Amino acid sequence: DTGVSQDPRHKITKRGQNVTFRCDPISEHNRLYWYRQTLGQGPEFLTYFQNEAQLEKSRLLSDRFSAERPKGSFSTLEIQRTEQGDSAMYLCASSLISDQPQHFGDGTRLSIL
Amino acid sequence: SQQGEEDPQALSIQEGENATMNCSYKTSINNLQWYRQNSGRGLVHLILIRSNEREKHSGRLRVTLDTSKKSSSLLITASRAADTASYFCATAFNAGGTSYGKLTFGQGTILTVHP
User: Fold this and answer.
1) Least CB-CB distance to A107: which of B42, B88, B103?
2) Closest Cα partner for B4 from B77, B73, B98?
3) What is the C-alpha to C-alpha distance for residues B109 and A9, in angstroms, rounded to an integer?
4) Shortest Cα distance from B50 to chain A (angstroms)?
5) Which residue among A35, A93, A98 places its CB closest to the CB of B100?
6) Which of A46, A78, A81, B114 is the most buried (most CB within 10 A)?
7) For all residues of chain A together, what is the average pLDDT?
8) Under a CB-based contact definition with an 8 Å cutoff, are residues A89 and A37 in contact?
């Protein structure tokens, strides 16, 4: 169990640029989740995958956001035309099945200049 | 939107004292989970309690669940400076007896344990 890894840990970019984050879940975990966390708040759900299928997207996930999980392994989260309000910590988590504890990565902190 | 509300928002205690955090939620749940988060890090799972359970223990942690009041509490006994962190409760929505798995988090309790 090598844990959930996320890359990069920090991303600083200018408003309007596109950014992509990567998440590598625990290898045997079928479920993969993305959350967003702003300062002083709990994480908010964005989307989740069962293997390669994206099963649900939050209303928080505007058209500028897209997530993929090709072949049911790693996942990417892309934000196009970044805005100031996108500044947050983006957390990835994985679990074996739906009602088991989720294992979180250390997140990618996005700062928009 | 945040479903859970946690109380207190911040708690400051001395090493060796007990810490109690409370969580309330609004919808029918499949399970409730508690997580810890150290500054700048991801969340670490502590305990999962299912809707048909009332109490669960893990080491110095004790969690209770009252589904009639839609509330839960986390007790940390004999606290240590290393317990300093933010603590979050999270609920998994119950959809016809199954859980979709996605979690709805509270705003968290910031616990500071002074040596």
Assistant:
1) B42
2) B73
3) 24
4) 9
5) A98
6) A46
7) 94
8) yes
**Which position has the token pair 């035309």?**
A81
pLDDT digits (tens, 9 = 90+) for A52-86: 999 989 988 889 999 999 988 999 999 999 999 99
| Position B95 confidence tier, pLDDT thresholds 50, 70, 90 | low
B104 in contact with A, Cβ within 8 Å: yes
The tokens describing B23, both together, are 């969580």
Model pLDDT for residues B27-65, shown as the tens digit of each residue = 888 899 999 999 989 999 999 999 999 999 999 999 999
Does A105 contact B at CB distance below 8 Å?
Answer: yes
- The first and second tokens of residue B42, run together, are 């991801």
pLDDT tens for A95-110 read 998 778 999 999 999 9
The single-letter code of the amino acid at B105 is: F
Strands annotated E in chain B: 5-7, 10-14, 19-24, 29-37, 43-50, 55-58, 61-66, 71-76, 85-95, 98-105, 109-114
Phi and psi, residue A85, nearest 5°: -70, -10
Q: Does A97 contact B44 at a Cβ distance shorter than 8 Å? A: no
Contact A11, A78 (CB under 8 A): no
Give residue B57's identity as a one-letter amino acid code: H
